[in-house]
Amino acid sequence: MAIPETILRELAQPYELTAEQIRFYDTHRFIKLKQVLSAAAIACFRDVIAAQVAKMNTTKTTLQERDTYGKAFLQLFNLWRENEDVQALVFSKRLGKIAADLMQVEGVRMYHDQALFKEGGGGITPWHADQYYWPLETDKTITAWIPLQETPLEMGPLEFSAGSHQIVEGRELAIGDESETLIQQRLRVTDFHHVIEAFDLGEISFHSGWVFHRAGANTTNDMRRVMTIIYMDRDMRLKAPENKNQQNDWDTWCPGAEIGEIINTPLNPVLYEPA
């Protein structure tokens, strides 16, 4: 389907952040922003992304047959390369400018996108920090978490430990049962506020690579459909991988990039910079 012109114009319009919102993100390393996308845009991309996920999904096992990570969500990557309509959202100047403004950088480029569809009855997403997986030199990374429907607590919206990017313990853990248990124990003895809130239609969150976050189980019968876009500073450089997951990410999402150099490959286009 072709994206309506009204929605394409919406995606090109800036969403102006306040100085207070930027300060909030800088302090807590996450923020939830209301009315970033209209109901019409959400409905349009829900249909487009759901159809693309159905086309790409190869999962054959039932929920009961999967481990904790597998029960958390169906996970499909780089939909922008497979579908021009999805690319319209992922390459949106509106979202890219928010990412750049929150990180206070001149521009942002693509790391990768991913659809995270938590099935009805799907399990928790364990506590973790995303940047454990990323061979990136600085912490100037941010993920837009875009629910494609209203997301009440029963559906398992994203939860944050506000300000937890300061914690070093747990950064070496892949997402799974161990990260859920150990990070939860660590956070329990800190003053970081655990934020658990529903998402309104059109509300989007942005979180940094080192802030700890999780999601609850989807106790409804409906699919929790979410699209994510991972941005990095336009001038991000590749670092030497510190674990096998970072090596895999280098090979998969930044092929051809060189250690110590700006990650400027065909898979990592600049998505926003001032005109």
Automatic annotation (TrEMBL):
Keywords: Dioxygenase, Oxidoreductase. GO terms for molecular function: dioxygenase activity. Its cofactor is Fe(2+). The keyword Oxidoreductase applies. Signal peptide: none annotated. InterPro entries: Phytyl_CoA_dOase-like. It comes from the Bacteria. Pfam families: PhyH. This is Phytanoyl-CoA dioxygenase family protein.
